[in-house]
Structure formats: structure tokens, C-alpha cells
Design a protein that fits this description.
Blueprint: H1 2-12, H2 20-34, H3 38-65, H4 67-74, H5 84-100, H6 103-130, H7 147-162, H8 170-199, H9 213-230, H10 235-238, H11 241-272, H12 284-303, H13 307-340
Length: 350
């Protein structure tokens, strides 16, 4: 009876951002593979396939059994979380390219990601724009909104990798346009988030791990630029190399700038204000930026031929994998507690 109740809660209360687990596991797998830890990379790759399939199964069950809850989430401030399905799909596709050289599966995942991106991204902005009752400037907006950038750049990243399998220069132009669109969105949304942080009171409960996406969104923008540089085989794209290198380095510098501030804010939240540290799905939103920073730094070192950046990525891997392990253990501990008290609602779903 307890398992049945837990199963119902797992489906009904499934967080819109659950695919952040796939994003984080996938990027840590790539970080491991690039920095010389092949066994870890392959293990996380196979685990990620299981996570991806399992989450889609739960999502489809939720669509059938609890469609009203699913739609209510999409119509609320939690709607941004559904964009993790786009990023998770494309990160898994990137694993297929880098670990298995499987362009066919990667292409199928890119098409699925593109379909999801078209519906979810524009649906996200459309429901925000047309909402009748809008919150003030001090409410709702946070780092989670930047998943719009993460989803867009993940599509650009995977698109650049599978471009050799697609005929015509139009596809390469599409991946470049996606990268520039993601950059545009970051430059538009980030000032709004900074305005919220700087000019309105910030409470410990509102300073969630989602703010790490401030760094993660700019880090994946760096990675998308890295790959455009490394795969700039078209003559028209080679003419843009000075711009690509400068803008990509600009984004990497921005990602690097965020890290000390985010660490300090986390210390302020938990050490100074004594906010309890407990598992939440949102902590995967911290793991992904750490793994993405490692991967984008490694690829930037290759793109600019700068060995110190590759060595820095080697250090970053250990930080990212430690964060992944801590969050995974926290999730398992949370599941054990949920099994012990199956009648309780899921506090990690907030």
C-alpha cells in the first residue's frame, strides 16, 4: 500500500524541472569523458539513458492521469521548468555524438528537442505576456527563467555537432542563429534578474539554487560558441571567427565572474542565516552549471589553443562530480524518507 501511494505522488507531484537530472548527469558524463575519466563518463551515459526514459514514462503517465495538474504547472510560475525537457534531450544527444559517434540517434533527439523547444519556449513567453494578473517586478523572476537560454543553446550545440549529417549550409546557419538568439535572450533577461536582486529585498527562502543558472546559461552560451569555432568549416562562418572568438570569450569571462558571488550567496544563506540544507529538485540546477562550466572551459581551451584552460577544466570536473554525488545521495535519502512516510506530500516538489 505504501509503494502505491508513493507511486501516485511521484506521478502527480512530478516537478516540471525533473529533466534537470538528465541535464546534470549528461553534462557530468561529458566532463568526465573530456578530462580523461572515460569509465565515469560511460557509466553516467548509461545511467542517463535510464533516467531519460524513466522521466518520459512518468511525464506521459502524469499527462494521462493528472492532466489538470500538468496544465496548472504550465500556467503558473513553474512553467519554466518544462524547458528542461529540451535541454535534457539535447544533452543526451550530445552524449550520443561524443561517446558513441551515433549521429543518427543524435539527429532524432535534435528533432525531438526542436519540436519541444518550439512549443515550450514560445508557450512560456506567450502565457507570461497574456497573463491577466501579473506580479510586480519583485516577484516570480529568478534564475529559472534563464532555462529559455539553456534550452536554446543546447539546441544550437547539438545542431553544430550533427551538422555534417545534414545537407546544405542552411542548417549551419540555423545553429548560428540559435546561438545568437540565446545570447540575445541572456542579455535581455539577465538585467531583469539583477534588478530583482539588487533593488528588492532578498529572503533566504527565495535565494534558491536556481540562481546558479545565472552562470549555467552563460556557460552553455560559451560552449555553443566554442563548437561553432571548432566546426567553422564553411567559408562564410570562417569570416566570422574573430567575432565568434571575442564574443565567446566574453561569455566565458561572465560565467567565471558569477562563481565567487554565487558561492558567497550560498554561504550567506546557509551559514549566516542558518537556512536548513535539505534536498530539492532545484539542486540539480546547481550541478548542471558546474558541469557545464567544466565542459565549456575545456572546449574553449581547444578552440583558442590555450592549455591552461584545459587544465582548469580538469579541476572543475572534480567539483562538478562531487556536486552530482552529493545531490544524488540527497535525492536517495529523500526517497527513503518519503517511503517511510508515504502519506506526506513531497516537499522537494516546490
Amino acid at each position: 500500500m505504501g509503494w502505491q501511494r508513493v507511486r501516485r505522488q511521484a506521478i502527480e507531484d512530478l516537478h516540471p524541472a525533473s529533466f534537470a537530472v538528465v541535464m546534470s548527469t549528461g553534462i557530468c558524463s561529458l566532463a568526465a569523458a573530456f578530462t580523461g575519466h572515460a569509465a565515469v563518463g560511460w557509466a553516467l551515459f548509461y545511467l542517463n539513458i535510464l533516467c531519460y526514459g524513466g522521466l518520459w514514462g512518468l511525464t506521459l503517465l502524469r499527462l494521462v492521469l493528472h492532466s489538470r495538474r500538468l496544465w496548472a504547472d504550465f500556467s503558473s510560475a513553474r512553467s519554466f521548468g518544462y524547458l528542461t525537457t529540451v535541454a535534457g534531450t539535447c544533452v543526451l544527444g550530445t552524449q550520443f555524438v561524443n561517446l558513441q559517434q551515433d549521429q543518427r540517434m543524435a539527429s532524432l533527439l535534435w528533432v525531438l528537442g526542436a519540436v519541444l523547444w518550439s512549443g515550450l519556449l514560445y508557450g512560456f513567453f506567450l502565457q507570461l505576456i497574456t497573463r491577466r494578473h501579473k506580479p510586480g517586478a519583485d516577484a516570480d523572476i529568478h534564475g529559472g527563467w534563464l532555462l529559455a537560454i539553456v534550452a536554446t543553446q543546447s539546441l544550437s550545440t547539438l545542431g553544430t555537432l550533427i551538422a555534417p549529417s545534414w545537407d546544405g549550409e542552411g542548417f549551419r546557419l540555423l545553429t548560428l542563429a540559435l546561438w545568437l538568439a540565446g545570447c540575445m535572450l541572456y542579455l535581455l533577461l539577465m538585467p531583469m534578474i539583477l534588478h530583482r536582486l539588487l533593488f528588492f529585498p532578498v529572503q533566504a527562502e527565495s535565494l534558491t539554487p536556481l540562481y546558479w543558472i545565472n552562470m549555467g546559461a552563460i556557460a552553455i552560451s560559451t560552449l555553443a560558441g566554442d563548437l561553432l569555432i571548432l566546426h567553422a568549416r564553411s567559408p562564410w562562418l570562417q569570416e566570422l571567427l574573430p567575432f565568434l572568438k571575442g564574443f565567446t570569450l566574453f561569455f566565458w569571462s561572465g560565467a567565471t565572474w558569477w562563481i565567487p558571488l554565487l558561492i558567497a550567496l550560498g554561504a550567506w544563506r546557509h551559514l549566516y542565516l542558518h537556512y536548513p540544507l535539505s534536498y530539492s529538485i532545484q539542486y540539480w540546477g546547481m550541478v548542471f552549471p558546474l558541469g557545464m562550466y567544466t565542459v565549456c572551459t575545456f572546449q574553449l581551451g581547444r578552440a583558442l589553443d590555450m592549455p591552461p584552460l584545459i587544465r582548469l577544466a580538469g579541476v572543475g570536473f572534480y567539483i562538478a562530480i562531487a556536486a552530482w554525488l552529493a545531490t544524488a545521495l540527497g535525492g536517495m535519502g529523500h526517497l527513503v524518507r518519503l517511503l517511510a512516510t508515504p502519506g506526506a506530500r513531497n516537499p522537494g516538489a516546490s
